[in-house]
Amino acid sequence: MSRASLFHEQTARQRIASLVDPGTFQEFLPPPERVMSPYLPLLDIPVSFDDGLVIGRARMGGKPVYMAAQVGQFVGGSIGEVHGAKLTGLIQSAARDAIPCVLLVESGGVRLHEGSSGEIAISEAMRAVFECRAKKVPTIAVIGSDIGAYGGMGILTTCCDFRIMTEHGRLGISGPIVIEKWMGKQAYDSSNRALVWKTSGGKTKFLLGDAEILAGDDAGAIASAIEALLEKSRPLTLAGLKSRHGDLDTRLKKFGKTSDPHDLWSGLGIKDTPQASLASAKEFVALAKRKSK
Amino acid sequence: MEKFDKSLSSRPFAWPKRTPWSLAGVVGSGNLEVLLEPNPKSPGKLECRVESSIPGYKDSWIAALDDFASNYPAGGIKATIHDQGADPIVVTFRLRQAYGELLKKSS
Predict the structure, then answer these.
(1) In this complex, is the C-beta atom of B84 within 8 Å of any C-beta atom belonging to chain A?
(2) Would you tell me the crossing angle of helices A81-97 and A115-134 to the nearest 10 degrees?
């Protein structure tokens, strides 16, 4: 895959096609089936044929995968009842068939217009992810677009075994505008893109260990990262959780009072922040020399 | 919302044995999605269904769709559009894009 096609500029269907073995993607509930939101028309909001989620089965390097891709442009990639049911069904199928599940995430979280159904759908999807993890079926989240993973989708993403991010991706719970609304513009200026990406972007999340892999913004790099994880899973144990809580405690002690994200970067071993900001994913990984976890 | 159906005369599309569908665009601000599907019942018509979030532009819609129906053999096709305020030029572009995809899938 050449640099001519930037992953973050692709549509959901193009992203799937660019990652899987050519011609192997079989879509479940494709657009002609018209499984669409029953709520949006009641609010005079246009619906989409796939409710903002493309799901199906494909092969990567000859191996079967279940794959989902969210459509960020449709109501922010948000999860309503249908979107959520499709997502849950796909992850449950992965658990049942012991086939790895890859989620191409691009979502602000629960669709507020379908609040309760969306919240329930997210928790059902999380349960399905944990079913996969209990059965050692790999669940891999890829965050490679500006919308990123926020709200319930941010939580679901962190429930997966692995996270692959590009520097365009963002990961968090409350989105930048929400934080600004609650805390004020002086505390967090959501229009400051450098600040937003330095606090929730792919490079920072990789430094912090919240994303296991930082990949370049092209399908080739992302596909190889996924393929390397297709046979790996991370057991969810009490000891593992406690150790993770320990890490978070250390992070809070070390950076809890930090207000400048550059201090976070230098505290995590980045010597030359401006250089690292401009570095490619590969260069950044080399600069970071992150301790393996 | 503005919702309407419109049937427009068009030369028949050369369907292959299989019956593919094609999709272009997404439902986002200033954009639309269009789904093209086979509609063997009326081989000489492009059957259109439009659902737009912006009311009051039915004449512009029909002009854009009719332009497409007379420029391309699109008879026997059903076009369903979910729109969120796309300009007429985007409407034409998405129709052409979906049509190109349909031709590719049909060959």
Answers:
(1) yes
(2) 10
pLDDT value of position A5 = 81
pLDDT tens digits, residue range A123-159? 999 999 999 999 999 999 999 998 999 999 999 999 9
Could you give the CA distance from residue A94 to residue A129 in angstroms, rounded to a whole number?
9
**pLDDT (tens digit per residue) in A33-55:** 999 999 999 999 999 999 999 99
**Domains of chain A by residue range:** 7-171+211-234
Q: Considering only the beta carbons, identify the residue of B35, B52, B53 that sits closest to A31.
A: B35
DSSP H helices, A135-267, are 151-159, 176-183, 193-200, 202-208, 219-229, 238-255, 261-267
Please check whether residue B21 touches A, CB under 8 A.
yes
Written out in words, the top-level CATH class of the domain with range A7-171+211-234 is: alpha beta
- The contact set of A with B (CB < 8 A) is 11-13, 30-32, 41, 44-49, 71, 73-75
Per-residue pLDDT band at B25 (split at 50, 70, 90): very high
Chains A and B: how many Cβ contacts under 8 Å? 44
CB proximity under 8 Å: B 30-69 to A:
31, 33, 35, 37, 51-53
Task: Give the C-alpha separation, A49 to A276, whole Å.
Answer: 42
Could you state, in order of their start, the residue ranges of all structural domains in chain B?
2-106
Q: Does position B73 have pLDDT exceeding 60, yes or no?
A: yes
User: Tokens representing A205?
Assistant: 């999340």
Beta carbons of A41 and B1 less than 8 Å apart: yes
Lowest average pLDDT, out of A151-160, A221-230, A252-261, B85-94, goes to: A252-261
